[in-house]
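Before a colleague's protein record goes any further, I have to sign it off. What it holds is a sequence and that sequence's fold in token form. My question to you is simply how this chain folds and whether the tokens agree. Thanks in advance; the entry in question is below:
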Amino acid sequence: MKKILLLLAIFFTLVTSAQQNNGPWTGIWLGEVGDYYTVILNNDREGYKFINFSFGEQDAVDEYLLSIDKSSLKTRIHNKDNDWNVNLIYTMVDENTLSVEFSGDYNDTMLYHRKTIN
């Protein structure tokens, strides 16, 4: 029984460690305005990848990582449908909240909240 408990403890430690290695930015995020979800992925092979989509608009928008440092991610969105270009700066408020500053064809700052899939 002690061996099983020890193995379970090691397993959960490894799983938790693996999730944290993807970074605090990864997850599904939804802003306080609009219905576009932002999915941030990170892996060793491809690095950061951003997927923006809206079920309401039935559309997806390209977003590209420009730079990253300890406190922020800087990206650029280009919407090919209307030639809309915006630079974004993501900063972590807490583990479930991002502040996102938009500049370019749209200028504003809003909070994004982490969403979970059950």
